[in-house]
Amino acid sequence: MEVGEKLLIVVAYDISITTENGTKRLSKVAKICLKYGQRVQNSVYECNIDTLNYKKLRNELIDTIDCSYDSVRFYNLGKNYENKIIHFGSKTINNVDSPLIL
Amino acid sequence: MEVGEKLLIVVAYDISITTENGTKRLSKVAKICLKYGQRVQNSVYECNIDTLNYKKLRNELIDTIDCSYDSVRFYNLGKNYENKIIHFGSKTINNVDSPLIL
Fold first, then answer.
1. Chain B CB within 8 Å of residue A79 CB
2. Residue of chain A whose alpha carbon sits nearest to that of B77
3. 10 Å Cβ neighbour count for A6?
4. Structural domains of chain B in order of their starting residue, each with its CATH number
């Protein structure tokens, strides 16, 4: 990997909004992810970023979630990712701040 | 890729349960994913399967979702995936069939 070379990082999270400050954490986590990438599903983002920003993204999210209740997963698809992603269905996404019945 | 060699496929879905039969689709999609892999977040599964089963999984899900409202994304992490996945936080997952306030 050359310095500054970009990777495709998929971020998926489950934030427990039934716990104290859960809705606040959900909103903050979504805003952090939007700084680094695009939202592709309600709680899934795709971030085309270099290793430095990947580290920053991880640190900001770890500082925000409550590890006892929330979960964040990162999937690194590397540089050549186009043929590693398949999507079927709608691309419409609900508003990030409204609690979601799923 | 040798025949039968296994890949790590991440499946992430958003099923719109506010539409007709949405809850039924949600439950069916979850059951299909459980046939092929393990649930790691409310609507994210990791499936360690060969290309033949990857195709079957895609076809079963496409036959189940309503493409106007639902979304399914597949991420192929390939054979050597261990260092491509990072997880922070809780591993507890809610019951797949009960509507989820997220």
1. no
2. A77
3. 16
4. 7-79 (3.30.70.240)
